[in-house]
User: Which sequence fits this backbone?
């Protein structure tokens, strides 16, 4: 017992006596670097935007480059400028992502009730008239620049420039008509900027689940021309404006004052009385738009 | 009480699984690619490498987790580096003492574990924020995930490059080895295709 | 309304050209080389060409099916790839090897990058290099042309075969001679003079399509006349190769063989007319083409004269393919009327 | 003259024949991460060249003049990495403070490099190859940096083109970059055996 | 004063950790160092013994042999004397290297007691291409050196590989690696011989007799293969 | 004595599409259809659109102004015949989509119009002051009839910053099929020369070149004869090549000068005027007639009676085609203009405007199989588009950058320097709509820039 104790002790002493130079040199190295870095960090301080600093702090600080930027500092700057880059820091994971979102949100979240996109057209491919067949580049901007193969020069073209612009997979072309999936939409306005015909306008919805009423048409053609071009276009007849005073007709096209709109009897009546059925609901649980009344369709 | 522990086990399981697949260091996080490519010409060195990484990851996670409340911002990364370098040296010594062959094959890629992003990442992302148990589980999960992918990759390459797996011949006698698979070309292309495959499976699932 | 009317962007007429006609031109240009291959290596040539073309086509088709992309074999580019790959293989290569090469060429060299037009590297050369790297021995096993030895006996890289029949001394490939000359200071001229004629007609060992200089020149001329290729790349490749070879020869005629000999041997002509000119992987601008061609010729000679391999064409083409984007960037065109202000 | 050509050969050899990325798999993370655009790639390459030259020479000195005479090889790795990390951080701070323009063009890449295994890897390889003199160590490390720059710029060029290509979705990003790197490595094998 | 305080606050952990880790390292090293050294000699011995079966153990000759390694530089080489049961010298072995096709090649070379004939070589470390250059590890190439005369070896690409003489037939497809091996030997072995002779370490009389023995040994080996 | 600047003047790049001039080159300019109704577009030019200055239901006389604008860069529009304003509404426009037009119903069967005025060979322009000429041009609503439709008064008015020295009359007519300028040169040589003299006087140019392609020897002869021994106007024979008539290319060919990229000819002291414009100017200045009719070539394989017609501006394409007879089953594409630069139209009610020099009706055969099916394959980087681009651009790079939505990249390859001549798309073996992508890209850029300030 005694023997083994002493042996162990001797062994440890032996070890340590062999080990001390290494310990000392590492001690030296460690101290040296600590001194140098601390002094340097004091002396060579550079002023940076505090927000970037904050983001930088939230990041892991590994400078691994996984984000595609040269180090965390660069990424912090980039995220600051373009919040869509959020989440490309793999090491930081969701943790860092949330923190940055928090930092950034403080600046952007004061914009009031969310505006959401409404496509101001309701005409499916089989409800529109065509003069010719478009054989060009499959892009709305391109098709819009050419002569109107599709008779209506104001409605949706269905080549999906807006779909490509949406980073959240919230837009799809359904039967030749751009259709928003309001459950996925984040209200980023990208689609409204992409549509060459300005069909998609951001509209103030009052809450998440509301279905907004809208005049789903954009055509300022005279009523007769509209009927020749589209079964479900607004003909500017003004019936809706008579039913509900938030509707008004200008340039052959009915408008709804979205800010003043309140759901109610009057609005509903206007909707049902509309001869072409162009007044519809748009929203997360909007009902199928009704078919146009038979009369105008038969006439056209 | 039991609720709390159930919750905890859930966290543990999650942490473990994260490393194995969801946040697999190689396939998902694309971290530590250098050793992944360099040591996967055959399964044996890959496995050895994986074990070294597990060892270092475990030790550094434990140490960092213990020290987490004492860390100061300016010298934090330096501290991590120091810890990791120490354990890598120890791992290297152990390899040289007990599996000299592998130590020779792996050469400088063992010390290169020091700069392997996985380890410092886990120190930063997990160990410096979590308690010791979570850190250990995380280290094990990540380590096994890393080792596993290394071995899969090495298996494919060794099979095609030599017709053997784990140095045991498995291909029919007439098989002509594809020498390219044992070379850098094979490493890059195999890993590239494998990442593609992983992307494919994960996409089809989501 | 008028349902047969269509609209689209101007111009509304187009030159009667298509990718397919371009590729068919290349196949026509390759025809003399294929015929020469058939003449010198008999059935082997056709087996290999057929194997490569079929394997390449099937690979592309499978890739299309997997990616749910439209059928793309109609442009015939994959046929060109298959033929060029086949023409750059040794005659006795086992068919399964050629199939592996074709699959690698098309799947990794072409389809992984997005198919026709997107690939960075010349698919045929990717396939060939993969084979050379993987199956070195098979890829350096040459045969005597059937016109010299009807049995087409094998000759490995360094052996000299003296045929009893014709007293014709031949050796693996002309390039193997020059490599040996380099190694052993053998006074290369003695080799070169004797075998020069062989390289012109094609009665030497070597890859299927590269032995007959005459056939290659015919094919190349056809492509130039048809304007399928422009003269810039072939000219740059050949001129720079001659210059580099001449520098070597002038330095040490005892070690390095004559410049002309380098032009006619190995894959130099096949490369100059058919491989380096692959439009997809070569620069777009004329200045870029000159740089590219000089690079291919220069690197080829560098590898031939100083490198470990006897032939440098495949590597130099791949290397220059890699820097093609940089060349394109360097040789960016400036509008005819100068850069716009501001 | 003789040593000069020997140095030149050593330089060329590490630039093209023993290229760190293609033959030694070093520095793959930034190679995958920062090769998206040519200007970024070039900045990264320059930064690596600078740091690798610096740390190659410094570790050579530390190793041969301190550690080996004192028989402290066991602390080699620790010493190497501390020297690299410290030096990089110092240089970065210094450049940022004093040469703002330089910093903006490539200084931003400096911190990223500390955790890049090309640097430590090269120092270890220099040790392994038994490089004979300080000058040789400096030349080789500089060559390694240039080799890395070349590799990453080539890759960046290719990737800029691939932006417009119809690469299969599952191969987009890292996978196709790796495959390209593989083919590049294959092409660079052509230089093998050139300098003996 | 405040600065010092700040400094200590910030860095005490690092400093303490450095010291502790230093000790940890040193201790591990201390414990494992003998094992590692033993491993290395074991491997050298194992390889050398494979080349010189008659040897019982290897002793290093005390001082290192300095040779020119080209480019005006010199290199230190440890030479081991292979000693048989009967304490007689049965050969010499040493560890030399040089550049190959891909990277450095490290060889263990053994010669007979009289330093006149090679007893063969083995590859300690190489990075040659699998399937090509790494055939220098194969017996049929190594066999050519067993009994080849010490002196200038020559590499040919054709010839009879069975015949043992100063002409070495290269591995087909890997001439460069083949040449590299020969070049390493040509560069160094002669010099070592000179040095050993100069220091009188080679007992010429004894060696001659021994060399006949070992010659028959190695000859037998070659015959057996 | 005629001084000819000798021929074969050319520029780098360009293509040689089949000329197809033989279809209509021998058809003299005939009166067009006598239509009951025209739609006079209120925007027929570059610049500010006009406002209608007549009410619905108002009576208008032939040549009466029906639309005008106060803006400087603009030109009024006139009624081609006496009638009643039926409506002011939207009408299809080849470029602008639906655009306002004044629809006029003819009061009675109006006889087809032929300009009767024929000046003397030694026409003396010094009777008119430059200001008077400019005012007459403005009042007549003359815009560039070569295609762009830039208000001519703005173009030729002397400008202190950019003094004009050289006048080039563009008689190249490089587009396939089109022959109206050729016929004008044959039939109205004197009128054109009179117009040239007026323009020269108004703009202060000291010399003038009459550029004609070498595939129109008859026109060269006619113009040379009409010029007589005029020292200051020379005929420049240029190589037959598309787009020789593009003004930047023409200036390069004739004067060996480059108009700076993004710049306009006056910057280097050059003024380019189309022959039809010159004829209209003479008409306006001398006889005070407004621009209400123009020569239009109706051609193409699907047209029964191809020819050159003097058509009332505002006539619908449908009426014009009915007049010339088309094989309906064979007309997959109706192009306003030539096949290289013209705009495909779909609505047969689209009216002829001041810039529509031709209606080309193409059959599938002419369009080509791949093009008519709209089938594009991948770019094989063959470089043909680079070789033919007259502006020395890199069309494939620009097009692919636009396709990949990388506008910065497209602009770094000088997207805006493209003149949209269509040579690149014409030669592309992969049938890529390079020009279409470039046009789309320009729209994207414009939209992006517009949004910037907000
Ligand atoms: C040997 C030779 C080959 C040529 N090959 C081509 C060619 O393949 N493509 C080309 O566009 N120009 C080529 N050229 C240039 C043409 O001769 C000429 O410069 C060009 O076609 C002029 O174009 P244009 O007449 O259509 O304006 C070549 C010139 C020479 C001397
Ligand atoms: C992928 C590949 C790897 C090679 N590796 C080696 C090698 O490691 N050692 C070697 O000497 N030759 C190697 N070679 C072959 C040489 O580059 C060269 O072809 C040969 O040394 C020339 O000599 P030979 O006459 O033996 O063919 C390799 C070839 C290829 C295609
Ligand atoms: C590609 C291209 C081709 C053109 N071809 C002709 C032409 O053949 N004839 C013509 O008069 N104008 C042509 N133009 C229009 C001229 O560039 C220029 O606008 C016109 O000659 C100016 O005269 P104007 O203002 O009287 O129309 C072309 C323009 C472009 C861009
Ligand atoms: C002139 C010309 C040369 C070609 N050369 C090759 C070649 O060397 N290798 C190849 O795989 N394809 C070649 N092709 C076919 C085609 O371009 C090739 O398959 C594409 O690289 C695939 O994207 C060539 C095509 C042309 C027009
Ligand atoms: S909404 Fe606009 S952008 Fe979207 S498909 Fe319709 S036309 Fe195109
Ligand atoms: S682009 Fe933005 S606003 Fe439009 S649908 Fe998508 S998420 Fe909603
Ligand atoms: S890029 Fe523009 S200018 Fe050049 S050929 Fe094409 S359309 Fe013409
Ligand atoms: S002509 Fe067509 S295929 Fe050729 S480079 Fe241009 S875009 Fe590509
Ligand atoms: S593992 Fe090598 S750079 Fe990241």
Assistant:
């Amino acid at each position: 017992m005694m023997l083994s104790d002493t042996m162990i002790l001797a062994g440890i002493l032996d070890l340590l006596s062999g080990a001390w130079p290494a310990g000392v040199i590492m001690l030296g190295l460690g101290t040296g670097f600590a001194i140098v870095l601390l002094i340097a960090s004091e002396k060579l301080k550079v002023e940076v935007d505090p927000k970037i600093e904050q983001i930088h702090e939230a990041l892991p600080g590994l400078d691994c480059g996984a984000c595609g930027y040269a180090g965390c500092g660069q990424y912090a700057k980039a995220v600051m400028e373009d919040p869509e880059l959020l989440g490309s820091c793999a090491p930081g994971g969701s943790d860092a992502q949330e923190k940055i979102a928090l930092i950034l949100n403080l600046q952007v979240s004061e914009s009031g009730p969310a505006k959401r996109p409404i496509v101001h057209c309701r005409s499916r491919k089989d409800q529109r008239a065509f003069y010719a067949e478009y054989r060009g580049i499959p892009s709305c901007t391109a098709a819009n620049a050419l002569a109107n193969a599709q008779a209506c020069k104001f409605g949706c073209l269905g080549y999906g420039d807006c779909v490509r612009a949406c980073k959240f997979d919230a837009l799809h072309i359904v039967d030749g008509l751009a259709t928003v999936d309001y459950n996925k939409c984040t209200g980023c306005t990208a689609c409204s900027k992409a549509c060459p015909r300005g069909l998609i306008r951001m509209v103030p919805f009052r809450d998440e689940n509301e279905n907004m009423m809208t005049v789903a048409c954009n055509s300022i053609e005279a009523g007769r021309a509209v009927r020749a071009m589209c079964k479900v276009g607004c003909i500017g007849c003004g019936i809706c404006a008579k039913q509900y005073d938030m509707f008004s007709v200008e340039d052959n096209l009915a408008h709804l004052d979205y800010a003043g709109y309140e759901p109610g009897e009057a609005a509903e009546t206007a909707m049902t009385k509309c001869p072409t059925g162009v007044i519809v609901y748009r929203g997360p649980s909007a009902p199928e738009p009704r078919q146009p009344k038979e009369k105008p369709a038969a006439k056209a | 009480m039991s609720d709390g522990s159930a919750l905890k086990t859930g966290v543990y399981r999650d942490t473990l699984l994260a490393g194995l697949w969801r946040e697999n260091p190689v396939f998902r996080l694309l971290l530590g690619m250098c050793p992944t490519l360099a040591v996967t010409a055959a399964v044996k060195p890959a496995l050895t490498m994986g074990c070294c990484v597990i060892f270092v990851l475990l030790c550094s996670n434990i140490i960092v987790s213990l020290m987490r409340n004492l860390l100061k911002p300016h010298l934090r990364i330096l501290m991590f580096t120091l810890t990791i370098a120490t354990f890598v040296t120890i791992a290297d010594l152990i390899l040289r003492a007990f599996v000299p062959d592998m130590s020779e094959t792996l050469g400088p890629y063992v010390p290169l574990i020091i700069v392997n992003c996985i380890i410092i990442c886990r120190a930063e992302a997990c160990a410096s924020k979590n308690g010791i148990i979570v850190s250990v589980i995380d280290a094990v999960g990540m380590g096994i995930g890393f080792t596993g992918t290394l071995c899969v990759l090495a298996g494919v390459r060794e099979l095609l490059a030599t017709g053997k797996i784990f140095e045991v011949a498995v291909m029919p006698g007439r098989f002509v080895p594809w020498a390219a698979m044992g070379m850098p070309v094979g490493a890059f292309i195999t890993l590239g295709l494998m990442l593609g495959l992983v992307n494919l499976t994960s996409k089809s699932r989501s | 309304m008028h349902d047969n009317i269509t609209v689209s962007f101007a111009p509304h007429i187009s030159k009667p050209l298509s990718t397919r006609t371009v590729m068919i031109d290349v196949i026509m240009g390759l025809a003399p080389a294929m015929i020469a291959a058939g003449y010198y290596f008999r059935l082997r040539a056709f087996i290999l060409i057929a194997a490569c073309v079929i394997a390449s086509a099937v690979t592309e088709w499978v890739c299309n099916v997997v990616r749910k992309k439209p059928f793309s074999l109609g442009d015939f580019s994959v046929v060109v790839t298959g033929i060029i790959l086949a023409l750059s293989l040794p005659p006795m290569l086992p068919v399964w090897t050629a199939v592996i090469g074709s699959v690698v060429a098309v799947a990794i060299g072409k389809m992984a990058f997005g198919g026709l037009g997107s690939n960075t590297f010349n698919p045929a050369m990717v396939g060939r290099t993969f084979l050379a790297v993987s199956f070195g021995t098979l890829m350096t096993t040459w045969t005597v042309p059937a016109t010299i030895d009807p049995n087409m006996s094998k000759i490995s890289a360094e052996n000299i075969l003296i045929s009893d029949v014709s007293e014709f001394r031949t050796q693996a490939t002309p390039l193997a001679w020059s490599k040996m000359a380099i190694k052993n200071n053998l006074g290369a001229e003695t080799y070169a003079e004797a075998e020069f004629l062989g390289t012109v007609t094609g009665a030497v060992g070597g890859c299927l399509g590269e032995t007959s200089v005459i056939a290659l020149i015919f094919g190349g001329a056809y492509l130039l006349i048809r304007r399928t290729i422009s003269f810039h790349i072939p000219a740059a490749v050949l001129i720079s190769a001659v210059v580099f070879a001449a520098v070597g020869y002038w330095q040490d005629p005892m070690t390095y063989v004559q410049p002309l000999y380098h032009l006619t041997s190995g894959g130099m002509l096949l490369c100059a007319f058919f491989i380096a000119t692959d439009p997809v992987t070569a620069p777009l601008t004329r200045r870029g083409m000159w740089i590219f061609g000089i690079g291919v010729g220069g690197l080829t000679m560098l590898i031939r004269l100083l490198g470990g391999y006897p032939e440098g064409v495949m590597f130099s083409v791949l290397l220059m393919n890699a820097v093609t984007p940089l060349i394109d960037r360097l040789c960016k065109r400036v509008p005819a009327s100068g850069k716009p202000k501001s | 003259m003789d040593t000069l050509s020997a140095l030149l050969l050593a330089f060329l050899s590490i630039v093209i024949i023993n290229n760190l990325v293609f033959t030694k798999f070093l520095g793959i993370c930034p190679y995958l991460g920062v090769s998206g655009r040519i200007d970024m790639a070039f900045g990264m390459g320059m930064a690596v060249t600078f740091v690798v030259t610096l740390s190659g020479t410094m570790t050579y000195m530390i190793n041969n003049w301190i550690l080996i005479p004192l028989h402290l090889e066991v602390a080699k790795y620790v010493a190497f990495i501390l020297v690299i990390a410290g030096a990089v951080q110092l240089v970065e701070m210094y450049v940022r403070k004093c040469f703002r323009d330089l910093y903006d063009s490539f200084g931003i890449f400096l911190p990223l490099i500390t955790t890049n295994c090309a640097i430590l890897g090269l120092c270890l390889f220099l040790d392994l190859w038994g490089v004979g003199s300080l000058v040789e160590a400096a030349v080789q490390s500089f060559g390694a940096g240039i080799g890395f720059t070349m590799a990453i710029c080539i890759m960046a060029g290719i990737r800029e083109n691939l932006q417009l290509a119809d690469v299969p979705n599952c191969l987009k990003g890292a996978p196709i970059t790796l495959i390209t790197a593989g083919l590049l490595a294959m092409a660079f094998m052509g230089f093998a055996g050139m300098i003996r | 004063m405040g600065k010092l305080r700040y400094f200590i606050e910030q860095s005490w952990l690092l400093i303490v950790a450095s010291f502790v880790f230093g000790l940890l390292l040193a201790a591990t090293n201390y414990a494992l160092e003998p094992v590692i050294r033993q491993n290395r000699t074991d491997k050298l011995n194992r390889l050398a013994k494979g080349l010189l079966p008659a040897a019982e153990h290897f002793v290093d000759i005390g001082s290192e042999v300095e040779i020119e390694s080209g480019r005006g530089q010199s290199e230190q080489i440890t030479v081991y004397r292979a000693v048989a049961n009967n304490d007689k010298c049965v050969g010499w072995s040493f560890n030399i290297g040089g550049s190959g096709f891909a990277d450095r090649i490290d060889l263990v070379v053994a010669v007979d007691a009289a330093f006149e004939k090679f007893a063969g070589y083995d590859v300690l470390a190489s990075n040659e291409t699998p399937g090509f250059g790494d055939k220098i590890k194969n017996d049929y190439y190594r066999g050519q050196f067993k009994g080849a005369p010490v002196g200038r070896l020559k590499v040919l690409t054709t010839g009879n590989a069975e015949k043992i003489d100063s002409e070495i037939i290269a591995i087909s497809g890997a001439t460069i690696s083949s040449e590299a091996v020969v070049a390493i030997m040509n560069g160094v072995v002669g010099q070592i011989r000179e040095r050993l002779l100069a220091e009188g370490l080679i007992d010429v009389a004894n060696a001659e007799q021994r060399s006949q023995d070992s010659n028959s040994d190695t000859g037998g080996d070659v015959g057996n293969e | 004595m005629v001084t000819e600047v000798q021929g074969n003047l050319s520029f780098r790049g360009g293509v040689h599409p089949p000329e197809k001039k033989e279809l209509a080159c021998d058809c003299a300019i005939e009166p067009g259809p006598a239509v009951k109704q025209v739609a006079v577009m209120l925007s027929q030019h570059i610049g500010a659109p006009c406002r209608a200055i007549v009410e619905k239901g108002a009576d208008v006389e032939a040549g009466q102004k029906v639309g005008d604008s106060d803006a400087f860069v603009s030109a009024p529009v006139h009624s081609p015949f006496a009638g009643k304003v039926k409506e002011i509404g939207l009408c299809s426009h080849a470029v602008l989509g639906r655009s306002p037009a004044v629809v006029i119903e003819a009061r009675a069967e109006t006889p087809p119009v032929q300009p009767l005025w024929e000046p003397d060979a030694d026409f003396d322009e010094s009777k008119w002051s430059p200001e008077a000429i400019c005012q007459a041009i403005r009042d007549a609503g003359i815009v560039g009839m070569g295609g762009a439709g830039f208000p001519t008064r703005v173009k030729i008015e002397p400008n202190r910053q950019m003094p004009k020295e050289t006048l080039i009359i563009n008689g190249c007519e490089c587009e396939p099929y089109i022959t109206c300028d050729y016929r004008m040169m044959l039939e109205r040589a004197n009128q054109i020369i009179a117009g040239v003299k007026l323009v020269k006087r108004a703009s202060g140019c000291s010399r003038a070149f009459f550029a004609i392609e070498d595939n129109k020897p008859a026109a060269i002869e006619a113009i040379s004869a009409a010029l007589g021994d005029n020292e200051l106007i020379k005929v420049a024979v240029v190589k037959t090549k598309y787009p020789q008539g593009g003004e930047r290319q023409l200036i390069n060919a004739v004067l060996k000068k480059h108009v700076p990229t993004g710049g306009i000819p006056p910057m280097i002291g050059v003024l380019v005027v189309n022959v039809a414009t010159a004829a209209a100017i003479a008409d306006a200045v001398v006889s005070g007639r407004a621009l209400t009719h123009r020569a239009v070539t109706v051609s193409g394989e699907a047209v029964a009676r191809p020819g050159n017609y003097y058509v009332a501006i505002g006539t619908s394409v449908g009426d014009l085609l009915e007049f010339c007879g088309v094989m309906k089953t064979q007309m997959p594409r109706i192009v306003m203009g030539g096949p290289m630069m013209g705009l495909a139209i779909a609505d047969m009610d689209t009216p002829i405007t001041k810039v529509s020099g031709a209606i080309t009706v193409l059959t599938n055969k002419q369009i080509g199989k791949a093009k008519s099916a709209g089938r594009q394959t991948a770019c094989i980087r063959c470089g043909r588009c680079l070789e033919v681009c007259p502006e020395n651009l890199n069309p494939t790079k620009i097009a692919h950058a636009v396709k990949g939505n990388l506008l910065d990249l497209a602009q770094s390859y000088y997207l805006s320097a493209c003149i949209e001549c269509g040579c690149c798309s014409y030669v592309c073996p992969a049938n890529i709509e390079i020009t279409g992508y470039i046009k789309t890209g320009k729209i994207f850029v414009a939209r992006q820039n517009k949004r910037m300030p907000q």
Summary: The first strand of chain B starts at residue 164 and ends at 165.
